[in-house]
Write a structure and sequence with these properties.
seven-stranded mixed beta sheet, binds flavin-adenine dinucleotide, FAD/NAD(P)-binding domain, alpha+beta, six-stranded mixed beta sheet, 17 helices
C-alpha cells in the first residue's frame, strides 16, 4: 500500500526528532504524520550530552541555534574528559576535533610519536586546540578557513533533552504534525501480511496508517512486543546495566565538556548546563548494589541535589531488524549501548536520515528494509567497538569489574583494530559510521596504548617541518588567549530562556 499516513508511537527525544525530521525532509510529499504520546507514562528523562552531528540535524531543520540553546539551557561541548580510566589518577580529553596543525601530510599522532620518543614532545593533548580550549575553560566558534587553527574542531551541546523535545514538538506541530495525547492499548495487525493496521488507544480512538514508527523507548511496544524483532544482547562486552541520575545546583563555572570518571563498577557522568549540573552513575549490577552506587553518586555531588535520584535499568544491545514489515524502530526501542560517549541521540538521527532516504515511494519494499537494517547494524557495530575499547584497554585491577572488562574476550573487529594500532599506530579507517580517526587516537593514547612503530614518513620529515610542529602548542595558546571564557561565550550568545510552550 502506498505510504500516505505515518504514525509515530511515542514522544520522547526520538519521537519528536522523528516527527521534526520527517515533516521537514518529506514535506514536499504531503504525508499525513501524527504522533501519539502519553504524559502519564512519560519519557526516560535522561540524555543531556550530545555529539556535533546534532548541529547538522538542527541546521537541516533550519532551527535558530541561539534560540534553541537559550530554550534548552544549553552549553557548548568540545569533548569529554575521561578520568581514572587506564589508571587511577590518569586524565585525558576526547576532543571533537583533531590533533596537530590545520594542514597535515600524515596523521599527526605519528609525528608526535617520533617527537615523544626523541624526548622533544610532552603530551599529545598540547597539540590539540579543542583539548586545550576545554582545559582552559574557553570557547570560540570554529573557523571556516581551512588554514586557521580554529578550523581543527567542532562542537556539540549539553542541553536539557526534555526541553529539546518540547522545542521540536512546537516545530513539528507548526510543520503540520498532529499530536495525540493518549495511551496505546493494543496493536491491530493485517491478518495476511502481518503488517500493522492501526493503534488502538485507551480513549477508543484508532490511529490507522501505512507506516508505523516505534519510538516507545525501552518498552519497544511495536517492534519488540508486537513484531517480535529479536534483541542482540551485548552485555557480555558492555556489562553496565544500571544508572542513577540526579541533577544538582551549579557549582563553579560551567565548562565546555562532559566528564566521565571511572568508578569501581562503572563510571560517573557530569554534564554542566547553564542552570544546573546533570550527574549520573552507570554501573554493573553484578558488581555493585543500587545502594552502594547511590552512595558513590550522592557522596560526590558538588552542590545540593535538585530532587530525588532516578534509578534506571537497561541492557546493552540492539535489534538487528530495526525495520520489520511496516514498522520502523527509532530511539531506545531499537537498541541502546550505554550512555558512554553519548551516542544514542546520534543513533536517532542516523535512523531518521536512513528512513528519509529510503522512504517508500509506493509500498514498503523489502530491499529498503534490508538496506535500513544493514546501515543501522553498521552504526551500532562501530559504536559498540569504540565503547568496549574504553573498558578493555585499562591497566586497572582494583575491582572485579575492571578485572572482568580488562580480560574479557572482545569482538574480532575490535581486536583487529587494537592490534593494528599497537603495531604501528594505524587507525582502521571507515567511511560510514561514528567516531573517526582522532577519536580512536584520543582513547588509545589516553588509555596508554602506545604503538610500537609509526608511519615511516614521520621519520623522513625534515627538521624545518618538525620545528613547525614543535611550535604548535605555543601557537595554540596564542590563538586561545583572546577567546572568551566558556561561560561568558554562552551568556553573550544565548538570549534569555524563552517560556516553554504549553
Ligand atoms: C542512563 C541513561 C543516560 C543517557 N544519556 C544519554 C546522553 O547523554 N546522550 C544521548 O545521546 N543519549 C543518552 N541516553 C539515551 C537517551 O536518553 C535516549 O536516546 C533518548 O532520550 C530517546 O529516548 P526515546 O525517545 O527512545 O524513549 P523515551 O524517552 O522513553 O520516550 C518514549 C515515549 O513513548 C511513549 N510511550 C511509551 N509507551 C506508550 C504507550 N503505551 N502509549 C503511548 N505512549 C507511549 C512515552 O510516553 C514517551 O513519550 C541515555 C539513556 C540512559 C538510560
Amino acid at each position: 500500500m502506498q505510504v500516505r499516513r505515518i504514525v509515530i508511537a511515542g514522544g520522547g527525544t526520538a519521537g519528536w526528532m522523528t516527527a521534526a525530521g520527517l515533516s521537514k525532509l518529506l514535506g514536499p510529499l504531503g504525508l499525513d504524520i501524527c504522533l501519539v504520546e502519553s504524559e502519564q507514562i512519560g519519557t526516560v528523562g535522561v540524555g543531556e550530552a550530545t555529539l556535533p552531528h546534532m548541529r547538522f540535524f538542527n541546521r537541516t531543520l533550519g532551527l535558530d541555534e541561539r534560540e534553541l540553546m537559550a530554550f534548552t539551557n544549553a552549553t557548548f561541548k568540545l569533548g569529554i574528559e575521561f578520568r581514572d580510566w587506564a589508571r587511577i589518577g590518569d586524565s585525558y580529553v576526547h576532543p571533537f576535533g583533531d590533533y596537530g596543525p590545520a594542514d597535515q601530510e600524515i596523521p599527526f599522532h605519528h609525528v608526535w610519536h617520533r617527537l615523544h620518543a626523541e624526548g622533544r614532545a610532552g603530551r599529545i593533548d598540547d597539540f590539540s586546540l579543542p583539548v586545550r580550549m576545554s582545559e582552559r575553560g574557553k570557547f570560540d566558534f570554529p573557523s571556516t578557513d581551512p588554514d586557521n587553527l580554529l578550523s581543527t574542531f567542532s562542537y556539540a551541546y549539553q542541553l536539557d533533552a526534555s526541553l529539546y523535545a518540547k522545542y521540536l514538538r512546537r516545530f513539528s506541530e507548526a510543520n503540520g504534525v498532529r499530536r495525540i495525547e493518549g495511551r496505546i492499548m493494543s496493536v491491530e495487525r493485517n491478518g495476511d501480511s502481518g503488517d500493522i493496521r492501526a493503534l488502538a488507544l485507551e480513549s477508543g480512538e484508532r490511529l490507522e496508517g501505512e507506516l508505523f514508527i516505534d519510538c516507545t523507548g525501552f518498552r519497544a511496544m511495536l517492534i519488540g512486543k508486537e513484531m517480535g524483532a529479536e534483541f542482540d544482547d551485548w552485555s557480555n562486552w558492555l556489562p553496565c546495566d544500571r544508572a542513577i541520575a540526579v541533577a544538582c545546583e551549579m557549582a563553579g563555572e560551567s565548562v565546555a565538556y562532559t566528564r566521565a570518571t571511572a568508578r569501581p563498577a562503572g563510571w560517573q557522568w557530569r554534564i554542566p548546563l547553564q542552570h544546573r549540573t546533570g550527574n549520573g552513575h552507570v554501573y554493573s549490577s553484578d558488581c555493585m548494589s543500587d545502594d552502594e552506587a547511590a552512595d558513590i553518586l550522592l557522596g560526590s555531588l558538588e552542590a545540593k541535589a535538585l530532587g530525588d535520584p532516578k534509578f534506571l535499568r537497561f541492557k546493552a544491545g540492539m535489534r538487528p531488524k530495526q525495520w520489520v514489515g511496516n514498522c520502523v524502530s527509532i530511539g531506545l526501542s531499537s537498541g541502546f549501548l550505554e550512555p558512554l560517549e553519548s551516542t544514542s541521540i546520534y543513533l536517532i538521527q542516523a535512523g531518521i536520515t536512513a528512513l528519509a532516504e529510503l522512504m517508500p515511494s509506493g509500498g514498503v519494499d523489502t530491499r529498503d528494509i534490508e538496506e535500513f537494517n544493514r546501515v543501522m547494524q553498521l552504526e551500532y557495530d562501530r559504536i559498540r567497538d569504540f565503547l568496549i575499547l574504553h573498558y578493555h584497554v585499562t591497566e586497572r585491577d582494583d575491582s572485579d569489574f575492571w578485572n572482568y572488562v580488562r580480560t574479557m574476550s572482545i569482538p574480532d573487529s575490535l581486536r583487529e583494530k587494537i592490534e593494528l594500532f599497537r603495531s604501528r599506530g594505524v587507525v582502521q579507517e571507515y567511511k560510514d559510521g561514528l567516531f573517526l580517526h582522532p577519536s580512536w587516537v584520543a582513547v588509545y593514547l589516553g588509555q596508554r596504548v602506545m604503538p610500537q612503530g609509526r608511519d615511516p614518513r614521520a621519520d623522513a620529515m625534515d627538521e624545518a617541518r618538525l620545528n613547525e610542529m614543535l611550535d604548535l602548542p605555543a601557537q595554540i595558546e596564542r590563538k586561545l588567549d583572546p577567546c572568551a571564557a566558556h561561560e561568558d561565550a554562552v551568556k553573550s550568545y544565548c538570549k534569555p530562556r524563552m517560556a516553554a510552550p504549553s
